[in-house]
Queue: 2 jobs
Job 1
Amino acid sequence: MSGLVLKDITKSFGNFTAVDTANLSVPHGKFVCLLGPSGCGKTTLLRMIAGLEDPSSGAILLDGTDITPVPTHKRNLGMVFQSLALFPHLTVGDNIAYPLRIRGASREEQKKRSDELLKLIHLPGFADRPVAKLSGGQRQRVAIARALALSPKLFLLDEPLSALDAKLREAMQVELRQLQQRLGITTFVVTHDQREAMTMADLVVVMGNGKILQAAPPIDIYRKPADAFVADFIGMTNLLDAEVDRAGRVSVLGQAIAGLTIPEGLTKASVSIRPEDVHLGSVGGDAISGTVTFVRDLGGTIETFVETGGKTIIAVATPRERPDVKAGQQVGVTLPAQSCVVLKS
Amino acid sequence: MKREAPKSLADYSPLFFPGLMLIVFFVVPFSTMIAVSFFQRDPSGFYTPDFVFSNYARFLSLFFGKVLGFSLVLAVMVAICCVVIAFPFTYLLTKRPRKVQTIWLVCLLSVLSLSEVIIGFAWSTLFTRTAGITNLFVAIGLMKEPVALTPSFWAVLTGMVYQALPYTILVLYPALVRLDPTLLEAARTLGASPVRAFMNVVVPALRNTIVATLIMVFVFALGSYLLPQILGRPSHWTLSVLITDQAIYQSNMPFAAAMAVFLVLMSLALVGLTLLVGRKENAL
């Protein structure tokens, strides 16, 4: 098939397994985010795609051909490093034109392409500046332009935005996504920021302990997490224990929830429910009663912490549907069955 | 942070100690030497204070000109050989595990503890016909019969490179350890082969370090006076050998001083030229 396929990729450093039998298939033109906590193997996986590390076993296929034995400099890819790795002894223009220089392009060709790319990253006229004179965001763009200079098949970025301040990072996320869509280039970004992944990705690959735990579009990862780790890592969630009684009814925190089923044969499971799906109301009826312990009013959203049965449930609401509660107040918590995701515990 | 210019004498106090050291150990002896270089030699005794240019005039001959030229060429060759060997070696060393690096560095330091005399005689033995390395080459079939490699220019060069190499590596090591390894990886992802990436990225990124190391080895090699005598013919003797000869064996202190002053001026000029060329290239 066309695109990139990872087949049973494993990478060990001595006794430590950094990446454990990773399988993934990505068609061309997709934006993939490798997401996970630090040390989960996401950077190692990216470096193997780049050829900077050799997998201990498994194969990497690009458009059906095995590229595992191909050295990095023959893989036709562009990579942006966390440190950006701009060459300090070259100007902005020479940095961008470096891959062309390697391939023996003439001075005019180099100049033409670097000017073209500088326009693409909104930095026209910067060609003759030394790299050291650029701001963080400008360096970022130059590193991206250099990686794209040869219109590579694969565009790899290792935590590219981590050095930028929060506001600039958000702006660059949008810009990077738009750039990728304009060029239609297959892109892999390593990040530990789930917000970044949600913003940019067509496909989010969640990793933990060297394993790929789930690979799905962002909204599916959010709405249908594969397990408790994914549910907890992506956004805020309430992870609660669910029990099945003799009559077959499923109850959470002692309250039966109509319409909720768990896979047959199981008597126990975990339930994940997003804070914005939790309803707060008055005590009584089908609601689970609890005590409000804290209200975090962030202006745009209001987070209410409710303690019930030794567990804290977080509910998020917008100011429009402002739940008029104060700390210490008794409230009723409703968990709609259709918003509950049952996970293996 | 804005720095204020020092106002009172007390603001200058941190400079007193280094200033004193510089005066006692550098300015005074060097001034003495310059003064002596203008003195008149007294054949029966030592020298008498005077102000004559005869010492410098005597130096301006074809013979001494040739010796000076040879000394400078030899020092430049030693510097270039050392950096060309040490730079890739040190680079590869920094890629090894820490433990391996430590062992290598300790071994290099132990080479530094050898005296110049031991190095000289060790190499002269290694280069002899009867007990030298050529016997080994004969044994493995590379050569027909053993030959003497010393005294020769190449023996002098080998000995001096051997002596200066540990210094070169120890000077290059910190800069190469600090070099961001992703620079090289970036070059490789952009299509440069490992060797090309090394030449395009590592060498230019460390240009200042390389120039500084070249100058250091050059100055170090210029002062060598034992190895040329042990491993070379009289035609391979450097100016330092002649200075030693004049100062110690001929008791002609004024002439030795004049030669030393001239050597210092020549090497300063050469170092200055190197820096000037370096700056011009930087501006491009």
Job 2
Amino acid sequence: MPPGEFAGGIEVRLDELLAARGMTLTELSYRVEVTIANLSILKTGKGRAIRFSTLTRLCEVLDCQPGDLLRYSAAGE
Amino acid sequence: MGPSLRGSLLLLFLSFFDVYLGGDLSRNDKGVVSVSVSPGRNRVPAVVAGNRWFGRLHVIVVLMLIGSGLAVLGGLLTTVVLALQSGRHVDYGFPGLWPAQDKVDLEQGLTPGTQVVRTMVELTAFNAGDRPALTALFVLTWLPTTLTAFLALFWLSRITLPGGFGDNVLFSVRTVTLLRRIGKVLVIGSLAAVALDFAAKTAAAHILLQGAYAIPGTIVSPFFALAAGTGAYVVAEVIRRGLEMLDDLQGTI
């Protein structure tokens, strides 16, 4: 594997948390003040990075810890 | 030296510092000059007269492109004349040849007391019997250089196109690709031009002169083209890294 590339990745478990709380993506978007497009990017794992401020607002609104929202998945999982 | 003169000299020196080293220069009410370096170095230089200067730059690049196009046409025209001229009436020849032996009478052209230290004679010669070979060799002396300049200016004019004033158009993968292309053509073209000029002039010297030796050709202008090509590669790499950073920044949510 070339240096700087990783086999695994970070999953953002927005779908599961939203389903558990009965919240829609539109409502989450309104409450955390992040556009639906950007939340979709996060959800699909296409985001390059997440600001601490965004993570803080997501945890506040979803009433969870960063570890509940993010999960490391090794290659092939 | 009076205090006011000393102060002026100090300010002059510090102005140099301000302009060339990116320092930040300021003078308070009591006339005390203070300097800070880091804020000035991080400051983005102000754009002069908006984007108008970029439009003017495009006009200059296009004029240079037209000039290099005319140089190509002039070279082609000279080549055609060289190829078609008869042996009786010769106007054009193979330029830049250095004869092994020369006799030049300079006594008439010197002021009293002047001595000739060294002479260098450069010939333009032609032999109708070797016309096809001389024409082909003549093409090798000018075409690589002018074609290199023309292509580099053509791609440079694509970068400075009026439609490319927007940040996203100018600071883009397209610009990186064009700059790399310019760098490649300048580096390879200038080296090829030197090699072909050397080979062509040496071959022509062996055809036209007795006791001919290798002629190095023009070295100076290819050196500048080589430097400009390397510079284009450096600028392309700077923009590429900037694009990577921008990509990271835009992907941050």
